[in-house]
Write a structure and sequence with these properties.
2 helices, 166 residues
Length: 166
Amino acid sequence: MKKFIFFALAAILSVALISCNNDDDDKYTEGENAVTLEGTWKGKTIITHEIENEKGETTYEEEEVNTTIQFVGNPDKARYGTKGTGRWSDEYDDGTYSYNRTEWEVDFVQIIIKLLDNDGKPTGTVLYIKNDGYSLSNNLFSGKVDYDGDMRGFAFERKNSYNWGD
């Protein structure tokens, strides 16, 4: 009887130890991030301007920019749809705007967004959003983006997504 209890206890403990969750299981994989990104996002990007006066004193001024980003996945050209194309548009308070086509990619470290000109050629500007620098859910995307060496905060809401079931 003691052997039976020992083996039963050993079996229960081995199952309990094997079935423990790993904290990393809760993080998105690169493919899950890409699927969550797909769609159109609208919100604000915050640009911080450093201003130096004639006395050499530095002050900072924030500018809110209306931003629209579109992520369109291309599952034929990437594993799990981790790459795609899209658009990035910024509209400034003075009525001016910038508009670029994009190529994007999600890897295990960051989201990489390359700005393209109207002919689809790289402009040389690459945006990086590090994995530890953003929060992403089905409806909200916020964090910090390295915009060609300039760190900018952002907060976007999903405006639409793609229904791949059709």
